[in-house]
Amino acid sequence: MTAEILMKNIYTFANILSQAGSDIVAKWNHTSLNNAFNWADYCIKVFQQIENKPYRGEIEKHMASMTLHLHPPSCLKLRVEDLGKARVILERTLLQNPFLPEKLSRTIIEQKQKTKGNNLEPAECQEIVTEVTRVSMLMKTLQTDEDLYRQTQLISEATALLSTVISLSSCSSKSQRFECYVYNLLSRLAKKVGQLDIILKMLCVLPSDTTYTDGQLQDLHNIIVRWLSEPQNRFLVTSCKVLIQEACRYHSDLCQSYLEHIVSWAERLEPSYNEDDTNFYSWRYRCTESSEKGKDHRTFEKLCEHLENLMNGNKQCQLTVKHTLQSLKEKSYFNVYSDILKRLNQIAEY
Description:
Number of strands: 2
Order of helices and strands: HHHHHHHHHHHHHEEHHH
Radius of gyration: 25 Å
Largest sheet: 2 strands, antiparallel
Structural class: mainly alpha
């Protein structure tokens, strides 16, 4: 077997394991399950062949780099020694995944009883199982309706996620590859959870692992801020304002990006005239031809709330907001920014 085929096959199993730890597993059937365990058995045989070979270190290096290419993106970091435990790791990953269909869970448990389990202690594989299921467990936690539970978990979950991601920064010598991985991971989290609480909190905590450097942490934080600055990132203006304010205190670049999102929102507000109303006009959000639904939160009042929140971050944020709004106000005789400044002044006086 050539080295190319070997690495391709290991990558196939790593992808299957990544899926086993994600919400994708909800679509698995018994055929999918059998296929996954067949690949796990294959990896055990691979490990037996390469365990004591001089090129083991080279394979380890390529496996680390492979981590950043997995789909869906996960926190999995597969090592050569893990190949020898592939079946156990897969089994425990599936059983700890809250998205695993009940019928497949029963099948796995029945198979375990028939084979009388294995000789490995649970702790031996728990680290990698935690890595591969981290995102799915986060999704389940953050989707709960119990706000108090979410808040008590947020700091520890953000710290753990930040620690895991920063440990993967050494998996590739290409910074662009790592940034692409982080973008994909954050996008997956935001899409599945529908909010940015955990991502914003990652900008306000330190990794639990003490082996990272200040440069690595700064680079990762910069990547997160750039991702949050993406125009298509529609979740920023619907996120928890307290968390945004906290993150903006630590990162002035995020303050500017957040303001740009709000300004793009303001640009879509247009006057709606009503002679019978107490006020001659009010500001309404203009939808596109494709009829953007669910934009009720994009009102003039909500926009002012976001700006007030941003101004309360720190002195630098306050100055940035005032300067930007004043400059935009002066661009024309009549625009929404005049009314925004009036409203913010009223709030400040109150």
